[in-house]
Known about the structure:
The complex is a heterodimer of chains A (306) and B (442).
Chain A: E1 2-11, E2 14-24, E3 29-33, H1 40-47, E4 55-60, E5 63-64, H2 69-72, E6 76-79, H3 91-101, H4 109-119, H5 135-147, E7 153-157, H6 165-180, E8 184-188, H7 192-196, E9 201-206, E10 209-215, E11 223-230, H8 234-242, E12 248-253, E13 256-262, H9 265-277, E14 282-287, H10 292-305
Parallel strand pairs in A: 3-8, 3-9, 6-7, 7-8
Antiparallel strand pairs in A: 1-2, 1-4, 4-5, 9-10, 11-13, 11-14, 12-13
Helix pairs in contact in A: 3-4, 3-5
Chain B: H1 3-12, H2 15-35, H3 40-71, H4 75-80, H5 85-96, H6 98-113, H7 121-148, H8 153-176, E1 185-187, E2 190-192, H9 194-220, H10 228-242, H11 255-277, H12 282-294, H13 297-303, H14 306-324, E3 329-330, E4 335-336, H15 339-362, H16 368-386, H17 393-399, H18 407-436
Antiparallel strand pairs in B: 1-2, 3-4
Amino acid sequence: MIEVADLSYEYPGRRALSEVGFRIAAGSITALVGPNGAGKTTLLRCLAGMDRPLTGRIAVNGVDVIDHPRQSHAHIGYLSDAFGLYPRLSVRQSLTYVARANGIAPADTPARVTTTAAELGLGERLDQPTGELSRGLKQRVAIAQAIIHGPTVVLLDEPASGLDPEARIALGELFVALRERGLTLVVSSHILAELESYSTHMLILRDGRVVEHRALGAGAGPTLCLEIETSGEPAALLAWLRARPQVEDVRVAGTRVQCMAPAVTDARAALLKDLIEAGFAVSHFAPRAEDLQRSYLASLDRGARV
Amino acid sequence: MNPELLRNLWLEATPQRLVLVPAVLFSAAALVDVLDPTGLAVAKMALFGFVLLTLVWGARQAANSVLDEARDRTWDVQRMCALPAWPMTWGKLAGSTVLAWYGGACCLLVYAGSGGFAQGRAAWLTLAFAGCVAIIAQAGALLAALVGMHRGRGVQARLGNLLVVGLLVWVMPKVTSVSATGEAVRWFGHRFSQLPFAAASAAAFAAWSLLGASRAMATELQILHRPYAWLGFLVFGALFLAGFPATSAAPSPTLAAELFSALALVAGVAAYAALFAYPSDALKLRRVAQAWRRGDTGRLLEELPLWMIAAALATLAALAAALLGATPTLGMLHIEQSGPSLVALAGMMLRDLFLLTWLVMVSRPGQAEGLGAVYLVLLDVLLPALLPHVGLGAVAALLRPNALSAPFTAIALYGLQALAAAGLCWHTYGRIHARLSGTPAG
């Protein structure tokens, strides 16, 4: 679906992306994360064919984005961190313009506008100027503009920026709905908790390089978050776990102790055996649903140590 | 309908504006008519209004059609759509200036009503001329806005204003004295009436300005294109210039020498303009080098900076003019150059271009153009004028040798200066290339 190989991008005097390569499968939602200046926006702009990299290859649905950016736009929807709306145009006019500019036939445009607006909950707002909409609704119009031409890949740069919690939750639900429709989404965001609710994959960038790219979920990464409960005081368990070489980020969470441990089943079995042999009365020992923030920090930490 | 035109019509041609524009213009015409019962002033003012609206207001609207997109951050939406460069260009030009043309049409109604067309063909030709100049201004303003849209509004505003003022100075005398008579123009040995010649020339340059705006739009939309339009424009400019006869008693030049010297001058000036418009940083030069190393001729043509193409053409044309051995004269510019003088000037041009490129590589983005202009004034004007007065005439002669009186010395000195500047560029490029090939910066 999206294939990137040896991608390097330079600003005058500074390299922003260096030999970046990955494949993103169709029907996934990839969380693009990384510290400020890691190259997330640059990568998204390159994927969208808006900035031309120095070297490398980008293909979306087999179309070479670098050589044929305009053709690739038929397959790609892009939402920048600015909404890109014309405040004096109505929702209907905005969507009509983008549909027509993306090659939708004039006869098909009104139906496409109505369908897309309804899909994004904008059916009642079609004749309202976009400048009069709330931030959350503006965001929806911007997403409608990005998908009205039926792309299979949607790239979103900080889509939840400035939205209230309710609008963020609604946005997450919308992304899941788009994914269920078969779209592939790449979402860049600083708000990891929000990405956690809908992402299937995580791609971490640091200093212009891919630190990690993998599926999300318990056991999908090299480490996972284990939750352990014993009948005694957690302090003793805490100290014991911290002394283990392969266990990291040990902390108390209520009556339980959480830690990052190797995802390999044998390693976990060995840990449980050692716990019991050490005299702990284990009442709960299970992987926890993946905590994106902890995985992200652990990845960056591993990347920094390499 | 072109969607870009449609969008602009939605934004510009609101019912209120469509009523207000004629109301204001017809009221103003009625006022002039009351004050001047002869009706002559009305016709003249109507024509004047046509020029002001289509040229000045139209150019401003055309430039704003992209500058406003950048300001409102809607430009990415446009760049993401599938509209090719030409429909995007004409959609913006026609749509953003629709009220200017609508107002212009109102002025023409007043002009017709006050007997302006009584002068027959001359009036029509004047209108055609003014209309084509307005298209040049609008397309030129759009081109300037596209070229400089990442360098702040001030730059494009200054470029656009300069263009508009220049065109106004050119067009106004012709418009305010509509007449079929006037000095005949000699071009390639034929005599043409001034007004038809001006109208035809303006039409040709209007077509080139539209093509130029479309090419700039393609560049902005990341559409790679080969520089054939640029080469065509340079050759057209040279042909246009070469057609004007010599004004002195110099020996009659051959047509080939005249053409090559005109090409050297046009391409030389264009090389400076192109370098200021699209400065080549180390990144751009790396793309060229990569295409060269891969032997990918097509990509090399797409990546070659326009200034390089113009500079190469200017140098080759100057050499050809020198080899032909004639003393070509360019009547229109009142320039008399020997072939070797042109080669010396080509050397100076190469020195300046390499120096400017070096500045682009070592300066912060956006600063090199201003710095470059200062360096050029210092090197080519101030120091050569100052040094002889402080007993350093010899240094001045080394810095700016006289290409007209001692062309061969000038060729040698400018050649050395150009080589030194090229060496400086090469060294700096190598340093940046080595640094960027290492670990990425954060």
